[in-house]
Amino acid sequence: MELVIDEGNTLAKAAIFINNGIHKILRADSADEELRDMLLDFKPEQIIISSVRGGDEKRFTIWTELAPTLVFDQYTPVPVINKYRTPETLGRDRIAGVIGARFLQPEGNLLVIDAGTCITFDLLTDENHYLGGRISPGAAMRFKALHHFTGALPEVDGFNSETLFGNDTLSSIASGVMNGYRDEVNAAIDEFSLQFSPLFIGLCGGEARYLVNHIKKEIFANQNLVLLGLHKILKFNEKV
Questions:
Q1: Which stretch of DSSP H or E encloses residue 130?
Q2: Are strands 21-28 and 129-137 parallel, antiparallel or unpaired?
């Protein structure tokens, strides 16, 4: 039994793996006592923890005292060749996501789109070279920015907008943000596909449910790509 913890910008997710498969997933505000209390019934043999918020062994003592713990950082060996120019600044969730996608799609070029607080595009070549990608504001961030940086525009929750254009301020914001968001994703896929073909596309993240029906190319969607990737990194380090 292995425990995988992914602490993102908004939530921390924990997955219990048994026989290389996900047995249970839990969510909490952060990778701290709240999450540990939810996992008291489990006794993992190994743990891997990844955080985009930063952290060190001292902060994660509650886990290192529970079982042998791998804190995933830029020095952790991974089963791909990392070509990122500044690996120390690379979000751990980004490279874990492409490793999880590689597990589901063993061959070919991969573009992994993680639609969360930010939307990231990450490229893994058919030779397992991680090249990098793009970082852009997520849809919720765009709605908040329009409200924050203007004097009169309201904050809108327009995720369900299907309209080409709005006929009042609220629907105009919803249409502008959501159509721009979807168009950006489809344009990025087209651009990457021109240089890396054939290209397989994986989709995950909290906002993925709003994109899955609006991407024009064939995709595979799986909310657990990062958790799967972290588990593969943990198992890979058993052999290093």
A1: strand 129-137
A2: unpaired
The SS3 call for residue 98 is helix
Residues 226 and 92: their CA atoms lie apart, in Å, by 9
Distance between CA atoms of residues 184 and 155, nearest Å: 21
pLDDT tens digit string along 213-229? 889 999 999 999 999 99
Range 27-35 average pLDDT: 78
Instruction: Give the C-alpha separation, 182 to 38, whole Å.
Output: 36
Cis status, amide bond into 198, omega within 30 of 0: yes
User: Strands 109-115 and 118-124, how do they pair?
Assistant: antiparallel
Indicate whether 55 pLDDT > 60: no
Do 182 and 214 form a contact (C-beta atoms < 8 A)? yes
pLDDT of residue 33: 75
Question: Which of 99, 95, 34, 46 shows the shortest CA–CA distance to 26?
Answer: 34
Residues identified as active-site:
93
Burial label, 82 (beta-carbon count in 10 A; 0-12, 13-18, 19+): middle
Paired sense of beta strands 220-221 and 69-71, if any: unpaired
Phi/psi for 17 (5° steps) reads -105, 130
List pLDDT tens digits, range 149-187. Answer: 998 999 998 777 778 898 999 999 999 999 999 999 999
> What phi and psi, each to the nearest 5 degrees, are found at residue 125?
-80, 170
